Amino acid sequence: MTLDLITDYVHTYGYFVIFVVLFMAMIGIPAPEETLMLLIGGMLLDSGLQFFAVIAIALFAVNTAMLVSYIAGRRLGNRLVIRYGHKINLTPAKWDKLKKRLEKYDGKKMIFTYFLPGMRQLMPYLSGTRKVSYPVFLGFTFTGSLLWALFYTTIGYYLGDVLGPTLLAIFALGICLFFPAIVITKRIVKAKPNERDLAHK
């Protein structure tokens, strides 16, 4: 999907495009969600869209998708992975290893996963398989999605005229890489003391 096409769709279909793209993206169907929110933020002045209406639609789309994934995880558990995981090269062993990694992002850390593409799509399903309570899940999901939507839309609003659509898309990619880079760096820093301890032993 090209930037011009996204822009045309937003001008033509408005809030409906926001809902469809974000819903698809959050249930795991590849879609340019960060780029969309930045572009919409940059288009607010001339698109006829309202800032708070955009945030409200984004929250509705994201939380609806997350709830669908959560219920799927809660109802189907690991059975879905066991039955269909091989189609995406996700074996039960890989799924167990992935679950152990993602379990570190429990509680308040779940909010941060919204800024990690891929992980935010997996967390609702994992929360469902672990039978996280509805109030806890919805509370963290709403908070994370609100911060995520405000972050990208606000940046797009203030930088849209300065950067333009192409640079905004590149900027979105940079942000998507920046947050995972923080996580990877923290893991490397934590691993180094352990390696030194083993060397001394």
From TrEMBL:
Query: Superkingdom of the source?
Result: Bacteria
List UniProt keywords, sorted A-Z.
Answer: Membrane, Transmembrane, Transmembrane helix
Regions crossing the membrane: 12-31, 51-73, 132-151, 163-184
Family annotation (Pfam families): VTT_dom
Q: Name one GO cellular component term.
A: plasma membrane
Name by which UniProt lists this protein: VTT domain-containing protein
Q: Where is the VTT domain?
A: 34-157
Family (UniProt): Belongs to the DedA family.
Which species is this record about? Pradoshia eiseniae
Q: What is the lineage of its organism?
A: Bacteria, Bacillati, Bacillota, Bacilli, Bacillales
- Xref: InterPro entries: DedA_domain, VTT_dom
